[in-house]
Write a structure and sequence with these properties.
Length: 586
């Protein structure tokens, strides 16, 4: 099979929502996309939770399965759209009884359990602001975010509170209520309430108050290179993008069973783990357990998943386990597979065809964009390693700065520059919490500057090069780490790879790579030399790494992104900066 382009594999089970890309782009408008949603009854505005739940519960989908939760111990719990509407209305009434109102911040420190989803949607119904946290966070990252966000309510468990919050509670004067999942609230936890009895005695009916499209709805914290995390603000209008990208980029159809594996502490876990599939009226699978290759294949088979949204890290771990592991499972129902979190290496796309019978469709977006901006679509050829093409309604370009500092578009194909977007899509963030200067610096000359370097080919496909801070400058060459890493991943021994630049007195920098091996391979000087030669053959002397170190695993965030800056800081003995989103940190 050619690795530069993968055409559609096998017959379509259903016709893709986007068949003619050119026509879709020409005819699309955000106004028409907004008209696909209902709005609050009586013209009282637009509320994200109403579009995700209540409008379905009042119609023919009331008894359709909305969410199926799979617990770690093998149990399951189902919510129809009608049941989800009642549960989230009860939670909204709980907030109201606690004096929590419009604009107040409700944080959730929970895993993938029903209480998280009920709290998120109930918070949005109430006009309050939902702020998810990674349950694996330690006390200091939790304190920083609750303090920055002026959290009034924290929904968590007693165990997580005692382990993660109790030691920093004194530094959180705005935190009035701690709502604990379960039946009891110990008296030694200040402001504690047991969630189950609160829900049981609350009214299952709730009238969503008037909600302006620009009212703040979601607050997502994203790690900065140094210093404090950034709080990206998103509004209720974002639901327009969540809905239409679910239809066009993830190809969600009526009757689909959708599984998004993202942690709820990450923006994907909210935008596409909660909101988008519900607005599209499909059934979502939610798995409480952490990654386990056999469990994942079993879920795909037993739950008859049709659309699967996961991360490159998970794909690489499945690849590491071997394609043979997938063979006993019936994965024929899987119609569309997509990936997000960091660029998906070409080998991962091709592996999808071998293991799943479908290529994996990479797409690109950021916490700041709030939704998918660039994607490989179901009906278009997949170019392994490419992010794809912009969504209808999204204007993307490669830009550079002139001598006068002005930003202008680079129209010549294949030229590297900064990926930029024209502002105006509904899910665009509306600011960084408490840092308007930083927000303003993201925009110049009519463009939102993403901080990612990329190139666009002659057919309009975009290709990731690297973050501006990650690009390696060596002897006049600008080297994207992704290119180096993708080449190393073609070697059968390599499970993961990361590349950084190290100082050089002559070339300015040279490339150093870090590699994690597949289980049946052992680190050795012979393998190191083999990998160096392998990379040089594929990349050429100027781009190939000069050094390779072996690591048991590469540091990455909980969203799956390899933390190259952390590898570089450790290599150079420099400060590590903000590591609160590092996988395994506490």
């Amino acid at each position: 099979m050619r690795r530069d382009t993968i055409e559609k594999v096998g017959p379509w089970a259903v016709s893709p929502n986007l068949l003619d890309y050119g026509r879709a782009c020409a005819e699309f408008s955000w106004e028409r996309a907004r008209a696909l949603l209902d709005g609050l009854p009586g013209g009282r505005g637009l509320n994200l939770a109403h579009e995700a739940v209540d409008r379905h519960a009042r119609g023919p989908r009331r008894d359709q399965l909305a969410l199926r939760f799979l617990s770690k111990d093998g149990g399951r719990r189902d919510f129809t759209y009608g049941e989800l509407a009642e549960a989230t209305s009860r939670f909204a009434n709980v907030l109201r009884s606690l004096g929590v109102g419009k604009g107040d911040r409700v944080f959730a420190l929970l895993g993938r359990v029903p209480e998280l989803y009920v709290a998120a949607l109930g918070t949005l119904k109430n006009g309050s602001v939902f702020c998810p946290l990674f349950s694996a966070f330690g006390p200091e990252p939790i304190r920083a975010r609750l303090e920055m966000g002026a959290g009034k309510v924290l929904v968590t468990t007693e165990g997580l509170y005692r382990k993660k919050v109790a030691s920093v509670r004194a530094a959180l004067p705005s935190l009035e209520h701690v709502v604990l999942a379960g039946d009891a609230a110990p008296s030694d936890i200040p402001g504690a309430h047991a969630l189950a009895p609160l829900l049981a005695r609350s009214d299952p009916r709730f009238e969503i108050p008037a909600t302006a499209p620009e009212d703040l709805a979601l607050l997502h914290f994203t790690s900065g290179t140094t210093g404090r995390p950034k709080g990206a603000k998103h509004v209720h209008e974002a639901v327009v993008a969540h809905h239409v990208t679910g239809r066009l980029a993830l190809d969600l159809h009526d009757g689909d069973v959708f599984w998004c594996t993202a942690d709820p502490g990450w923006v994907t876990g909210t935008s596409y783990g909660i909101v988008s599939p519900l607005t599209c009226g499909v059934t979502s699978i939610v798995d409480e357990a952490e990654f386990d290759a056999e469990r994942w294949y079993r879920i795909l088979q037993d739950e008859r998943v049709t659309v699967w949204y996961t991360a490159p890290t998970a794909i690489r771990m499945l690849m590491k386990a071997g394609v043979e592991l997938a063979r006993p499972y019936d994965l024929s129902r899987v119609r569309f597979v997509a990936s997000v979190g960091e660029p998906l290496n070409p080998e991962g796309v091709v592996w999808g065809v071998e293991a799943l019978g479908r290529p994996i469709h990479d797409n690109w977006w950021q916490t700041e964009t709030g939704g998918i901006m660039i994607a490989n679509f179901a009906a278009l050829p997949v170019r392994p390693g490419s992010m794809g093409r912009p969504l209808p309604g999204v204007t993307a370009a490669i830009v550079g700065r002139g001598a006068d500092g002005a930003v202008s578009e680079i129209r010549e194909p294949g030229v590297e520059g900064e990926l930029a977007l024209r502002p105006g899509w509904p899910s665009m963030f509306r600011g960084y919490l408490g840092d308007e200067a930083r927000y303003a610096a993201c925009f110049a000359d009519g463009w939102y500057l993403t901080g990612d370097l990329a190139r666009r080919d002659a057919d309009g496909y975009f290709w990731f090069v690297g973050r501006k801070d990650d690009v390696i400058k060596s002897a006049g060459h600008l080297i994207g780490p992704f290119e180096v890493e993708s080449a190393l991943l073609e070697h059968p021994a390599v499970a993961e790879a990361a590349a950084i630049g190290k100082p050089d007195p002559v070339a300015l920098e040279y490339v150093k790579a870090f590699v994690a091996l597949k289980p049946r391979y052992a680190a050795s000087e012979e393998l190191r030399r083999e990998l160096l030669g392998f990379a040089r053959t594929r990349l050429g002397k100027a781009v190939a790494p000069k050094e390779i170190d072996f690591l048991p695993a590469l540091p990455r965030t909980r969203s799956g992104k390899i933390m190259r800056r952390l590898l570089k800081a450790r290599e150079m003995g420099l400060p590590e900066g903000d590591v609160s989103t590092l996988e395994g940190s506490s």
